[in-house]
Each structure stands twice: as structure tokens, then as C-alpha cells.
TrEMBL record:
GO annotations of cellular component type: plasma membrane
PANTHER family: 3-PHENYLPROPIONIC ACID TRANSPORTER-RELATED (PTHR23522:SF10), BLL5896 PROTEIN (PTHR23522)
Keyword Acetylation applies: no
TM regions (residue ranges): 7-26, 32-56, 68-85, 91-110, 130-147, 153-172, 192-211, 231-251, 258-277, 323-341, 353-373
Gene Ontology molecular function: lactose binding; lactose:proton symporter activity
Localization per record: Cell inner membrane
Main location class: membrane
Matches recorded under InterPro entries: HcaT-like, MFS_assoc_dom, MFS_trans_sf
NCBIfam families for the chain: mfs
Protein name: MFS transporter
Protein keywords: Cell inner membrane, Cell membrane, Membrane, Transmembrane, Transmembrane helix, Transport
Protein's membrane topology: Multi-pass membrane protein
Major facilitator superfamily associated domain sequence ranges: 2-355
């Protein structure tokens, strides 16, 4: 079961590793403006606002999460083929909205499947999830190397085998793994959401993803403008995820040693440092390497912390909807706003200004966490 659970993470994040560093470069090569690139990249996040909540609700009501993951994987892959028609700005936006509506449903559902599959052995989550990071690194490095020799317009074709990998992995998970008893409708979701710590948790994560908008949308363009080649760009993306893998391997020890709130605040502080370093010192390779190693904090640690909060506060009855809200409000709304605002800042003052905007957003998140965030209660289920 360990390898079956890890398999889908590998292929899902391998696709993400091909999209995030290189899709903005592909769009730039197609002739789109910075603001159009930001808008198109924001659509990847935008459907996370609606899709995970709808699919999470269906998963909680039916218990058929594996079946829903399969539907999302197959349909998303089919809809992505619309990119090969090379539509204009609005046509491409429609294609991206369509395929991400199904693709973005996969991960939140699968997180629930994984955590419930691990049962009491939740400490192994990091070791399952780290294979997603391995897939990301492998994809970033390989695609970056290939793009040194082929035109960027081949990128959509290079993505198709990764879509196929996700589909195959989804069908490798036993159907019984998703046949968990349906949610009976009881429990007070509103009461959970109105707790001050839960509101602080969501506010912190929304601002965290707003701060990542410049990174996911313009980091590759930022580096290319400074003279880095595509392979070097890929290696720098991979370095960040490699640091994340190391952290996932030891995260259970970190949780044993430090309170969750302490981990969250320390990770936010390192994220603030990361954006400042990228904004001002990206031309300095050692400093940029240090900044990329901070990805272990800005994504790895804070994601592991968030999984802990969701599991503790939303429990069994609302686990699917809690995961969907986390994905929708933070990666969805926060990511989309961050991508679009970064486009405005890049048009106005360049990529450096966008990363200073990221630093501003994370500074507010740090204040919110310091004042209102509390460590979640421990649960045994």
C-alpha cells in the first residue's frame, strides 16, 4: 500500500514540476504580456477555489474518493489536449480553466485517502508525500534539460506522458481504499471555522500563498532576465524541492521536539527571509542557493503543519471539506490573487518588486500567527 499511495504523488507533482517552472516561459514564448501570463497562471489556482470544495463534498457524501480521483485524472488529461490547438488568450484561458477544474480535484481527495489509509501511522505521511517531491525534481531537471535542445512550443507534448502517469497511478489504488463510510451530515462545520485559531490558520495560509504568487509565476522569468539558462533554472527549482524532501524525511522528529505553533512561526520567518533574498540578491549564486533551501520551510514545513491542523480540527466528519477549504481558500484564492498581483507589480516595477510584495504579505501572516495561532489538539483517530 505504501508504494501505491506514493505512486500518484510522484506523477502528480512531476506534472506540477513541468508546469510551474516552464509554463510561464512557454506563455512568454507564445507572445503573451506579463499581465496576461499572470492571469493565465492564476487560472491554475483559481479553479482550486471551487473544484476541491465540490469534489470534497462529493467525497464526504459518497465515500467514493478513489473513483472521483480517477474521474478527475482522466477528464483533466483529456481536456488539456485543447492546448494543442494553440488558442489565443481567451481560448487558452478556457482550456486551462477546464482541465484544472478536474485536475485540482485530485490532490485534496487523495490527501484524505492517504491519511485515512495510514490510520494511526500518520507519522509516515511525510515519507509517502516525499515521493511527490522526488517526482517534481525529476521532472524539473529532465524537462529543463530537454528544453535546452527543443523549442518551448514542444512543452505541451512533453506534459502528456505525465498526465498518463497520473491516470495509471489512480487506477493502481484499490477501489476499496476509497470506500469509506459516507459523511452522515452531523457535526458543526461552522463552529469549527469560527474558532480563532482556525481563522488565523486560514488567514496565515492565504497570505502564504499570496506571497508565493511571484515565485510560481515569475521566478523562472526573473532568473532568465539575470542570465541563467533553462537547465540552471531547473536545477534551482529542484534544489528547493530537494530541501523539502530532506525535511519531510525528518518532519516526524521535528513534530516530536517542537510545538506546532513554534514550527509554523519559524517557517514563516524563514519564508520572509527567502523572498527578501530573491528580491535583492538573485544574481549572487550562493545567496540564491540559500534562498532556495528555505523552500523546506515555506512549503514543506508549513504544508506538514497545515495537514496537522486540518486533521486535528476537522476530524473524520469534515475531513474532506476541511482539506477542500484548505486547498480552495489558500492555494486557490490566495494563489490566484498572488499570481495576478505579482503580474501588476512586474508590469510596474519588475520582478524584484513582485518578490518584495511577497515579503510584505508574509510579514502580515507572521504577525497574525504570532498573535492568534495556537497549537492544535492531539487526536488519536
Amino acid at each position: 500500500m505504501y508504494w501505491r499511495l506514493s505512486n500518484l504523488y510522484f506523477w502528480f507533482f512531476a506534472l506540477l514540476g513541468a508546469l510551474l517552472p516552464y509554463w510561464s516561459l512557454y506563455l512568454e514564448d507564445r507572445g503573451f504580456s506579463y499581465l496576461q501570463i499572470a492571469t493565465l497562471m492564476a487560472t491554475i489556482q483559481l479553479t482550486k477555489i471551487v473544484a476541491p470544495n465540490l469534489w470534497g463534498w462529493l467525497g464526504d457524501r459518497t465515500g467514493q474518493r478513489v473513483r472521483l480521483v480517477r474521474i478527475g485524472s482522466v477528464t483533466g488529461a483529456l481536456l488539456f489536449t485543447g492546448v494543442f490547438l494553440e488558442p489565443g488568450f481567451y481560448g487558452l484561458m478556457l482550456v486551462m480553466l477546464a482541465f484544472t477544474f478536474f485536475w485540482n480535484a485530485v490532490l485534496p481527495l487523495y490527501e484524505v485517502i492517504t491519511l485515512q489509509g495510514l490510520g494511526r501511522d500518520r507519522a509516515r505521511y511525510g515519507r509517502v508525500r516525499l515521493w511527490g517531491s522526488v517526482g517534481f525534481i525529476a521532472s524539473v531537471a529532465l524537462i529543463g534539460l530537454i528544453l535546452e535542445y527543443v523549442d518551448l512550443r514542444w512543452l505541451p507534448a512533453l506534459l502528456m506522458p505525465l498526465f498518463v502517469g497520473i491516470v495509471v497511478a489512480a487506477f493502481c489504488v484499490p477501489s476499496s481504499q476509497g470506500q469509506i463510510r459516507p459523511h452522515d451530515g452531523k457535526g458543526n462545520l461552522k463552529g469549527i471555522l469560527l474558532q480563532s485559531t482556525v481563522m488565523a490558520f486560514f488567514a496565515m495560509n492565504i497570505l502564504l500563498q499570496v506571497s508565493h504568487g511571484a515565485y510560481y509565476t515569475f521566478f523562472s522569468i526573473h532568473l532568465e532576465d539575470l542570465g541563467y539558462d533553462k537547465f540552471s533554472v531547473g536545477l534551482l527549482w529542484s534544489l528547493g524541492v530537494a530541501a523539502e524532501i530532506v525535511l519531510f524525511m525528518v518532519m516526524h522528529r521535528v513534530f516530536d521536539r517542537f510545538p506546532v505553533r513554534t514550527i509554523a512561526i519559524a517557517a514563516l520567518a524563514l519564508t520572509l527571509l527567502r523572498w527578501i533574498l530573491i528580491a535583492e540578491y538573485s544574481a549572487n549564486v550562493p545567496v540564491l542557493i540559500l534562498a532556495q533551501c528555505c523552500h523546506a520551510a515555506s512549503y514543506g514545513a508549513l504544508h506538514a503543519v497545515s495537514v496537522n491542523y486540518i486533521h486535528s480540527y476537522f476530524g473524520f466528519q469534515h475531513h474532506g471539506q476541511g482539506q477542500a477549504l484548505y486547498s480552495g481558500l489558500t492555494f486557490g484564492a490566495g494563489g490566484a490573487v498572488g499570481a495576478w498581483l505579482s503580474g501588476v507589480l512586474v508590469e510596474w516595477r519588475g520582478t524584484g518588486a513582485a518578490f518584495w510584495g511577497s515579503a510584505g504579505a508574509i510579514a502580515v501572516a507572521l504577525v497574525i500567527a504570532a498573535i492568534w495561532l495556537r497549537s492544535p489538539p492531539k487526536v488519536e483517530h
